[in-house]
Amino acid sequence: MVLLFCAVPILWAAITDFRKRIIPDWTWIAIVLFGGISAFLLPHPTLPQRIVGFLLPGVCLFILALKYGGVGGGDIKLTSAIGFCFGLYGLAAILFFALPPAYIYAKATRQKSVPLAVFLCIGFFVYMGVFIC
Questions:
Q1: Who's near 130: CB < 8 A, 6+ residues apart?
Q2: Is 99 exposed, middle or buried (0-12, 13-18, 19+ CB in 10 A)?
Q3: Which residues cross the membrane (predicted)?
Q4: What would the pLDDT profile of 59-100 be if each residue is shown by its tens digit?
Q5: DSSP letters along 26-37, please?
Q6: Under 8 Å CB-to-CB from 35, ≥6 apart: which residues?
């Protein structure tokens, strides 16, 4: 399945975000490319769902970054790329599994900024295990 190819860039983004607090550009670009390929091969999510999944988190996270800080540009691009690849509903499910552990980690370590790609990776693998397999 094409969407399983997203595992490598998401995992690499998580590793580098945890170690260096940076998300390489090739990771989100690869995810968008896999999403584009899957748009032609899979009927779901539909193209409008993919577009909304790309735009909505990007705009929301960008506004949060401007207002409060703590959200990096790499996090915004990676979340938007995942939204394009999996559509709005898939992204919502991934965030459902990603954000509670991110919140717990932030509270436990008393950090305002967390390596979001790590938790997006966790959410991605739980999503793939629960909904795809």
A1: 93
A2: middle
A3: 26-44, 51-69, 81-106, 113-132
A4: 888 888 788 776 788 999 999 999 999 999 999 999 999 999
A5: HHHHHHHHHHHH
A6: 6, 50, 81, 84, 85, 86
Rounded mean pLDDT, 18-35: 95
How far apart, in whole angstroms, are the C-alpha atoms of residue 10 and residue 75?
A: 11
Q: Are 121 and 14 in contact (CB under 8 A)?
A: yes
Q: For the chain, what are the domain ranges?
A: 2-132
Residues with Cβ within 8 Å of 73's Cβ and at least 6 positions away in sequence, in order, are 65
Residue type, 106: A
Cβ–Cβ contacts within 10 Å for residue 71, how many? 20
Distance CA 22, CA 49 (A): 28
- Alpha carbons 23 and 71: distance in angstroms, whole number: 12
Structure tokens at 129: 């295990």
Provide the mean pLDDT of the chain. Answer: 91
